[in-house]
# Entry
Amino acid sequence: MTTPEIWRIARENARLVGYRCTSCGWVAFPERKRVCKRCRAPADFEEIELKPYGRVLAYVVQHRLPKGFETPLPVAVVELADGLRVYGHLVECAPEDVRVGLEVEADLRVMYEEEGARVYSYKFRPREREREGS
Ligand SMILES: [Zn+2]
# Structure
């Protein structure tokens, strides 16, 4: 690995960078791929900035997790762009308020600390207007 994982994650999630296949438009995230998963073309990806908004497609509420995680913890599959689905923790949201179709926004948060270093990743929280109930 040329770049330490912690820096790669922090850099890419600060802006939510994806990689769009120039042949078919499929978006790879969070890593650039060698071959497009949709059209199988050899890699020719352009870097794009993703909008940090999406919708919950599926979710589960975790009740038993390793030490260091607060439970119950909702985790969801979120569609950020057409066909681009990512998995992440939901925060600022009671487990009973999570539902399929919930609009969420990605936010860079501390995931855990390791040897004194903070490891960041994105988490999702309900968008403002969802929280206001309108
Ligand atoms: Zn493609």
